[in-house]
Amino acid sequence: MHQTFDVALGVNLLHANQAGADHNRAHFDKWGITCLNLMSSPGAGKTAILERTLAALSPQLKIAVIEGDMTTELDADRLRQYGVPVIAINTGRSCHLDSKMVAGGIHRLEHEYNPAEFDLVLVENVGNLVCPAEFEVGEHAKVALLSITEGEDKPLKYPVMFQEADCLLITKMDLAPYLEIDLKRIEENVRQINPHVTLIPVSAKTGEGLETWFNWLASQVQSPSPKPLSLHHA
């Protein structure tokens, strides 16, 4: 857990970050953009889900991605193959994106493109099950991912991310036949923490649940309603 108060500087870090997040959100609102913040532990499948999402929705929605990673641009390069703007942010030793980092991405988006043309900005946060949920970046909704390989107890052991999530994708469902995992128990543990979250089991490999995810995502878009989705299961 991060210290929420820097004694040396006398600055409330979370308060300062929240002010920046509100500023970022005001930019998105001005442009009519919906921003979603995708969060999970490392390896839960954020980039794989984004690949399927961009393949299916980018023909109908104007999408940009802000891609957070500690050092490389490997995930950003994977997503650039889908022909959408991908702004990479390397956080160095920081285990999460914060509003100031994302503000830098917004400024790049504004400089290189006409942001008013975009419908959706997807922020892929740094892989971490704790810190990203504490620092808003200007998003309109938070999407958490939990792989079934992580176990049934993670929502109870790391509750903050699950408390904050508006939508939870339970990923890698194609592995369910090979694991001793109780999906009902996972759902019960999640509901204990957050009874109102939208919960969608998915598999980026087989396409299970992706149509439900795409439709939820499209329902969040601020811009005029998109055309009926024609899904491409690449």
From TrEMBL:
One of the GO BP terms on file: protein maturation
CDD domains: HypB
Any GO molecular function: GTP binding
Gene3D superfamilies, per database record: P-loop containing nucleotide triphosphate hydrolases
Keyword annotations of the record: GTP-binding, Hydrolase, Metal-binding, Nickel, Nucleotide-binding, Zinc
UniProt cross-references to InterPro entries, sorted A to Z: CobW/HypB/UreG_nucleotide-bd, Hyd_mat_HypB, P-loop_NTPase
Boundaries of every CobW/HypB/UreG nucleotide-binding domain copy: 38-199
Family designation: Belongs to the SIMIBI class G3E GTPase family. HypB/HupM subfamily.
Name of the molecule in the record: Hydrogenase accessory protein HypB
Organism: Desertifilum tharense IPPAS B-1220
